[in-house]
């Protein structure tokens, strides 16, 4: 694929930024990739592993002269970074982000985007529980959706160019407005993470009673929760503080459904439970049919090949 931007600046060099760097390099999508992260430690690692062409000592230095600047920091840090780089953004450049919440990021970053610079928020729906500059890999976005959330006045040509970059990195691209994005993500990602955090927390409390049984006999369901609950605490703190309303709305519905299931168990209402689980099984089938997961059994065991 042809080069799409001459100079791309990645502010923050964690899982998402490092995956973007690898994916852009894989297909030669950027002439030059420049990166910046807050700590000297992360910057040193990025230099050591050759993540970018150039690692700078400030966010402004990275953003200066860039055609595309992507904010890859936790949602709560977006405003600070935008304030710093706003004055150096070059006319005609695009500033984007990869934050997991869109409304508050738009409100926080928007005021610092100068006239003549395109602000086009985005969110790749791809991740792992790992973080930091070593955790990225080029395939992270392959066949995963990236939601582009154009704001008022986003120039269509600039939106198309950013969409081309994400497609070049392997992603499927869709557009949505910020409110819809935040509600959809509250259902598909944010509330499930909160439930995983809670379940692992409860099991941890229980461990004090049952010693190490929770770990020793950890079955697939619990293990899946522990993987999700190992995600970066700063990122997820910021997600909940910034997608407060949608998450609380979905949690309210979740609680009602949980009570209904609790009542069905108490009243031994097998029909209710069976109907409910039949419905949820169909949702899983739909995800597999949409190519967003496979149905290969995976119990966390190493693959043993029988000759
Ligand atoms: P990460 O691996 O924890 O990396 C975060 C990066 O941001 C680090 O390089 C960190 O620098 C830097 N940073 C933090 N605060 C900063 C500040 N004030 N100024 C400059 N740099 C700062 O995080 P990530 O998983 O890549 O997430 C980045 C963004 O992508 C978040 O907004 C998140 O919501 C979004 N996102 C995450 C996922 C996911 O599954 N992980 C998926 C989609 C979108 P130091 O290392 O020096 O602290």
Q: Which labels suit this protein?
A:
307 residues; alpha/beta; six-stranded parallel beta sheet; three-stranded mixed beta sheet; 12 helices; 9 strands; 12% strand; disordered C terminus; binds NADP nicotinamide-adenine-dinucleotide phosphate
Give your account of this protein's structure:
This protein has 307 residues and is α/β, with parallel strands linked by helices. Helix content is 50%, strand content 12%. The chain contains twelve helices and nine strands. Strand 2, helix 2 (40-48) and strand 3 (54-55) form a beta-alpha-beta unit. Helix 7 (178-210) packs across helix 9 and helix 7 packs across helix 11. The model is unreliable at 303-307 (pLDDT under 50).
Overall pLDDT confidence: 91
The level of helicity is 40-55%
CA-based shape: globular
The number of strands is 9
- Give the C-alpha Rg: 21 Å
- Report strand %: 5-15%
The strand line-up of the biggest sheet is 3-2-1-4-5-6
Low-confidence regions: 303-307
* Ligand set: NADP nicotinamide-adenine-dinucleotide phosphate
Distance between the termini: 41 Å
Structural class: alpha/beta
Total helices: the number is 12
The major sheet is characterized as: 6 strands, parallel
Order of helices and strands: EHEHEHEHEHEEEHEHHHHHH
Summary?
Helices cover 50% and strands 12% of the residues. The chain contains twelve helices and nine strands. The strands form two sheets. A six-stranded parallel sheet has the order 3-2-1-4-5-6, with helices on both faces. Strands 7-8-9 form a three-stranded mixed sheet, with helices on one face.
